[in-house]
Design brief:
The protein has 630 residues and is an alpha+beta fold. Helix content is 37%, strand content 23%. The protein has 15 helices and 23 strands. The strands form 5 sheets. Strands 12, 13, 14, 15, 18 and 19 form a 6-stranded mixed β-sheet that branches. A 5-stranded antiparallel β-sheet has the order 1-2-3-5-4, with helices on both faces. It is elongated and about 90 Å long.
């Protein structure tokens, strides 16, 4: 009786829902419905996030769970009912002790058959066992609550997903790493064996498309090849095999290494690992992009059988997937085509993970070479630096430096931001920072340094454009590429750069004389001990845009207790919804509250203010430099 009351309240809420927080879709009763339902749910959540109905914190996790749930419910409806499907997604606000939640409802027009039965099914399925995978076990695991509502001509299955984790005993998943969530989802997708004989023909016919779609989603989200191997094992065992093993080939020719061994019986894993010790079975060379199955007697003893697949991407071998069944008749022909498709997807996921790892490694090496190992200490000035690239695996576009400019007691500092990120930004950073050091040590003043750096960037861009044109279309086009040299060179060769560059000279009576220039960069702010804050420079044009720009510098004194704050746009343009951190002079207000703090204290205070401004982590490189005279 309580369950019926719950069902009715859910439907009443859906009728009263706000138009901004309810989305509906009608889908045909065919195998494409599950894929369309997944896109529908992701689109609805993206729209609600854009409108501010849902915060960005936890949205990716909620979307992943909702996609799994709606896919399972729609697949059940299509398989069992065979009619069109109505899908509803609704956000319910928190009420009383209930958390705010996302409700998914899937309705079909054939309510005469229950989702679960109390007696044997016509095909001999055990009581209570779903015909497709685990049926609603996935839904029951991910949802805080779920149920079924019957009305004339309509059956509705609904599930409620809390926005902030599970309520009452089920652990919140907000703190789990993405990889751990993927493993957990794979464990849910892989059903426990409930009968000694699998109905492979029926399962492959009904569940293959949804299985491959969900497997692709899980595998594509992994950026570590060992995690891909682990997920592959959990998806296969015990759904399609009693055990499996994955070997991964080395990138430079070392012998394959066993990455994962999986068995439906955990107590048998160690024995299986010993039986499979050594190299994987030898497989013939295969045509490009194929995963041809090879039946092997592996392990040598036992009544079962095994089948092996070469894991490839393009024509490059990546490893071997071996799976088997311990009881006759072994791996049936009905499952081979599905396993071939699955092996191809595993190979693609491993290839993508390796490519990401390779690029991230190169980027980290570049980052270490492009940024100074340590910044110089300026006499009479305390300094503190915060640098946080938005992606730890890729070189950022922000750069910094503090260095002595030869004899005469001159010290130079810089904080720059290259357009874009990754290797393209690294190229410009690799040019700009050494050029700045060289020009400063050659004796050029601040404005002159910017003038010459601007010319060097434009010359480099012009040479790159001419070389590209020459390679693409010959000398005639290359000559035309140099026309119009007074404007920015469009295309991928552009070298736009914002820069704050300054020079400090210690004063005998204490403090320093500061001369600086700001080229398209967020303006530096000067904090006096009395709490007043003012810009310390005037805004000028970006570097690398046009020629014949005469940059100007400003000179002032930093007396003891004065603080100069320099930041990149990762600070000023930090977003929370439609607002930015520096709207209404937000950065100046935050700095005004930093009187009596050390340089390190100011840097930490501003960094904390930037991070707490929005719930989502920063999506741009963040760099700030604090200079405080003493």
């Amino acid at each position: 009786m309580q369950q019926e009351t719950t069902h009715r309240s859910v439907h009443l809420l859906s009728q009263r829902g706000d138009a901004r927080s309810v989305a509906r879709a009608s889908l045909p009763g065919n195998p494409l419905a599950a894929s369309a339902a997944r896109r529908f749910v992701r689109t609805a959540l993206a729209d609600w996030t854009r409108l501010g109905t849902v915060t960005t914190r936890g949205t990716d996790r909620l979307a992943d769970d909702a996609v799994l749930v709606v896919s399972e419910l729609v697949t059940n409806a299509v398989v069992h009912a065979g009619t069109g499907v109505e899908v509803l997604a609704r956000l319910d606000p928190a009420t009383g002790d209930d958390l705010a939640s996302l409700v998914i409802e899937v309705s079909d027009h054939h309510p005469s058959r229950a989702v679960h039965s109390d007696g044997p099914e016509p095909d001999g399925t055990a009581p209570g066992e779903p015909e497709y995978g685990r049926g609603l076990h996935l839904v029951a695991t991910l949802a805080a609550s779920w149920g079924i509502t019957y009305r004339p001509g309509l059956k509705t299955v609904w599930a409620r997903l809390p926005l902030d984790g599970f309520d009452g005993g089920a652990p919140a998943r907000g703190g789990e790493a993405a990889g751990q969530r993927g493993v957990r989802a794979a464990e849910i997708l892989a059903p426990s064996p409930r009968r000694s004989v699998r109905d492979d023909r029926a399962w492959v016919g009904r569940g293959a498309l949804s299985f491959l779609a969900e497997a692709s989603d899980l595998l594509a989200g992994q950026l570590d090849e060992d995690m891909v191997a682990a997920l592959a094992g959990q998806l296969l065992v015990p759904r399609l095999a009693d055990w499996c093993a994955v070997w991964l080939d080395g990138e430079t020719g070392p012998a394959p290494r066993p990455a994962r061994v999986w068995h439906a019986d955990e107590s048998a894993i160690e024995g299986l690992r010993e039986a499979l010790a050594g190299d994987p079975p030898r497989l013939p060379d295969e045509p490009r992009g194929t995963a041809v199955p090879v039946r092997v007697a592996w392990p040598p003893t036992g009544a079962g059988s095994a089948v092996a697949f070469r894991l490839t991407v393009g024509a490059r071998p990546l490893g071997t997937l071996l799976l088997g069944r311990e009881a006759p008749p072994g791996v049936p022909d009905e499952a081979i085509a599905l396993l071939e498709d699955f092996a191809r997807r595993v190979g693609l996921a491993i290839g993508a993970a390796r490519q990401y790892t390779r690029q991230a490694t190169i980027s980290r090496v570049l980052q270490r070479g492009l940024l100074p190992a340590q910044v110089a200490r300026i006499p009479g000035v305390d300094s503190s630096l915060v640098y946080e690239p938005s992606d730890e695996g890729l070189a950022g576009g922000d750069f910094y430096d503090i260095f002595p400019a030869g004899s005469g007691g001159r010290w130079c500092f810089m904080l720059g931001d290259v357009q874009g990120s990754g290797p393209e930004a690294a190229v410009v950073t690799g040019l700009a920072r050494p050029w700045l050091r060289l020009l400063a040590r050659e004796g050029y003043q601040v404005a002159g340094v910017l003038d010459r750096l601007n010319g060097l960037l434009l010359d480099d861009a012009l040479e790159a454009a001419e070389a590209a044109a020459l390679m693409a279309a010959g000398p005639a086009v290359a000559g035309s590429a140099g026309a119009g040299s007074g404007a920015a060179h469009e295309g991928p060769q552009s070298r736009f750069l914002s820069l704050l560059y300054g020079e400090l000279t210690p004063l005998p009576e204490g403090g320093v004389r500061c001369t600086l220039a700001c080229a398209g960069h967020p303006l530096p702010l000067l904090l006096r001990p009395d709490g007043t804050v003012r810009p310390a420079a005037a805004s000028q044009l970006l570097l690398g845009v046009v020629e014949d720009v005469a940059y100007e510098s400003q000179t002032f004194e930093l007396t003891p207790g004065d603080t100069l704050l320099c930041v990149t746009d990762g600070v000023t343009e930090r977003r929370s919804g439609q607002r930015m951190f520096d709207d209404s002079d937000g950065l100046a207000q935050a700095l005004a509250g930093c009187t009596d703090l050390t340089a390190e204290g100011v840097a930490n205070r501003i960094r904390q203010a930037v991070h707490t401004f929005a719930e989502a982590p920063p999506d741009d490189d963040l760099a700030l430099l604090v200079l405080q005279a003493r």
